[in-house]
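Researcher: We're teaching a course module on how sequence relates to structure. For the next exercise, students receive a sequence and then see the predicted structure as tokens, so they can try to spot secondary structure elements on their own. Here is the exercise chain.
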Amino acid sequence: MLKSIRNALIHKSIHPYPGVDLESSVYAHSNDTLDLTFAEEFTKANGQFVYCEDVMALVDNLKIMAHEKKWTNIFSFDNQLSKVLEAAEIVHSSKDEDFESLKVAVTFCESLIARLGSILISSRQTAGRRLNIYPEIHVVVAMSSQIMPDIRDAMKKIREKYSGRLPSLISLITGPSRTAGIEASLVPGGQGPSEVFVFLVDDTPMKSNDEQ
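Model: And here is the predicted structure for the students to work with:
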């Protein structure tokens, strides 16, 4: 069998359909903006989406959500996010000794995939691997410039970011964790967070009156 595989690799057959375009997207073009497409697909997967027009709106929305949901044991490894949480007067921790008691993790992401409503994460982020799996509630803060149309675009971006040395883990999060492996019934949060939030901050450059 191995010999047959080797011979097949050495003596490649001629492509029978040279005119077929294998690079173009097979999906229909959408006239919606990327943020709207992502929000629609993400909420279909039971994710919870919050739009923030700027960083101050992010602070306000986090403060309101944390109060309404009665979030406790909030954790983040990222210094930038810690400053945002402090501005929102949200008590949180980044100490390893508090990790096991965490209930809410606040992280960044690599990209958002509009067509799938998915969050692309990697092990090279400050959050590492743990904060995407361990908590009951996962809060992701993303910028509108991070929204990619499809996986191909997101992977191109991540290759450019890490100069070809890809992280050891690249994964997609599409809504809360759920499994049907327990007595064939769907169980939310069986293998990860039972709630996933995306707070999208609009970082689109403002146009001057002359440009409009």
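Model: If you want an answer key for the exercise: The chain has a mean pLDDT of 87. The helical segments are 2-10, 34-44, 55-69, 79-87, 151-161.
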